[in-house]
Amino acid sequence: MLMAKLEFLVGNTPLADLDKLGKPFPHVRLLAKLEGNNPAGSVKDRAALSMFQGAIRRGELTPGTRIIEATSGNTGIALAMIAARLGYPMTLIMPESMTIERRASMSAYGAEIVLTPEGQSMEGSIDLCRQMVAEGRGINFDQFSNPDNWRAHFHGTGPEIWRDTEGEVTHFVSAMGTTGTIMGTSRALKAFNPKIRVVGVHPEEGAKIAGIRRWPEAYLPKIYEREWVDEILSVGDAEANEVTRRLAKEEGVFCGQSAGGAVAAALKLAATIPADQQATIVVILPDRGDRYLSTDLFR
């Protein structure tokens, strides 16, 4: 009988060939890394586990210590899962605009949920988190400045992509939130082959795409280092939503809006690659679509 402890099931997610969406570009192979296959359903399982392990290893986290974290959803769910598994109390702070599915998932794992006003956006949740930690109510992993965030992808996501494409990956595309995924994966892939192009995805000005951020300068994640990203593409709400729906209806891949935005950017990228040049584009699909059923995304 095959079995493993939950923490050993994080990572090693599959690559799906998006041959239908990529059909207009026969010289490009478009591969999607299905991070929704992680135990708590998103790419953030990797960073959450890495941050817990790092804090325990350094002696920062002792039995009974409460963790307080600001989150837009997926990181919170992943942290709540690992906290439940390892037996730590968890408080998660998030904007009240986040979907009911995300709140319910965190609560199911036993986490305390604190909501901040929608108008304050994610910055308001970060400010409240800092205040609660300053008051001595717990410790904060701070996914935005914690190198254990990107290290999860340096040791996991990047090597997996290189292995599973047999070294044929030429481009890597990732939405940018905390930027941990793109920072760690870029470091790993460029160590294998410095010629691999790394493309980040931002929302257009005014667009609101769950999981993708265009940060004000004062809140830019400290782990973000611009030199690890070769190019940044912007996507809008409409195109992110359209590609998300196409992924479900044409490819049978049920994912969230940030995945649709990333694939939309990957298709833009594919259109720029000369027809006489073979390419393999790997794009991260951060989570599953069931976290968005209460929204208008699939209606």
Task: Write up this protein.
With about 300 residues, the chain is an alpha/beta fold. It has helices spanning about 45-55, 75-85, 100-110, 120-135, 145-165, 180-190, 235-250, 255-270, and strands at about 15, 30-35, 65-70, 90-95, 110-115, 170-175, 195-205, 230-235, 280-285. The chain folds into two domains: about 5-35 and about 155-290, 3-Layer(aba) Sandwich (Rossmann fold); about 60-135, Rossmann fold. The protein contains eight helices and nine strands. It starts with 14 loop residues before the first strand and ends in a 14-residue tail after the last strand. It catalyses: O-acetyl-L-serine + hydrogen sulfide = L-cysteine + acetate. GO terms for molecular function: cysteine synthase activity.
